[in-house]
């Protein structure tokens, strides 16, 4: 379960940035192509935050769909799954969205 180590890193960064203030909430953006399970991250957040300035904080997760640009036909396509193919059948695509894993914001108090 790599979500625990990812979540621990998020908690560490937020606590470092918060200084001596409490972290009340954290908002992250998770792309569909990252192979990070949002439910697992939610489960891990309370464990990772225990005993830190983020204990009791809320984790809000924003989802981003995967999308590719086809180098053959020029189409931009949102992906329904992990299969990196254009509807034209080409596999010559460039991922343009869905590989994000970013802390968007945090609220401190």
Automatic annotation (TrEMBL):
One Gene Ontology term of the biological-process aspect is: protein maturation
Q: Which UniProt keywords are given for this protein, alphabetically ordered? A: Metal-binding, Nickel, Zinc
Protein origin, superkingdom: Bacteria
Report whether Zinc shows up as a keyword of the record. Answer: yes
GO terms of molecular function: nickel cation binding; zinc ion binding
Q: Which residues bind Zn(2+)?
A: 70, 73, 86, 88
Answer whether the UniProt record assigns the keyword Transmembrane helix to this protein.
Answer: no
List the InterPro entries: Hydgase_Ni_incorp_HypA/HybF_CS (IPR020538), HypA/HybF (IPR000688)
Q: What does this protein do?
A: Involved in the maturation of [NiFe] hydrogenases. Required for nickel insertion into the metal center of the hydrogenase.
**Family indicated by similarity:** Belongs to the HypA/HybF family.
What is this protein's name?
Hydrogenase maturation factor HypA
Species assigned in the record: Paractinoplanes atraurantiacus
Organism placement in taxonomy: Bacteria, Bacillati, Actinomycetota, Actinomycetes, Micromonosporales
């Amino acid at each position: 379960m790599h979500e625990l180590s990812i979540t621990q890193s998020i908690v560490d960064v937020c606590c470092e940035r918060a200084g001596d203030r409490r972290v009340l909430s954290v908002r992250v953006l998770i792309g569909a192509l990252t192979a990070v399970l949002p439910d697992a991250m939610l489960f891990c957040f309370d464990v990772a935050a225990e005993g830190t300035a983020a204990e009791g904080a809320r984790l809000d997760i924003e989802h981003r769909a995967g999308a590719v640009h086809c180098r053959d036909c020029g189409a931009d396509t949102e992906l329904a799954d992990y299969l990196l193919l254009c509807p034209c059948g080409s596999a010559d695509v460039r991922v343009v969205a869905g590989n994000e894993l970013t802390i968007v914001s945090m609220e401190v108090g």
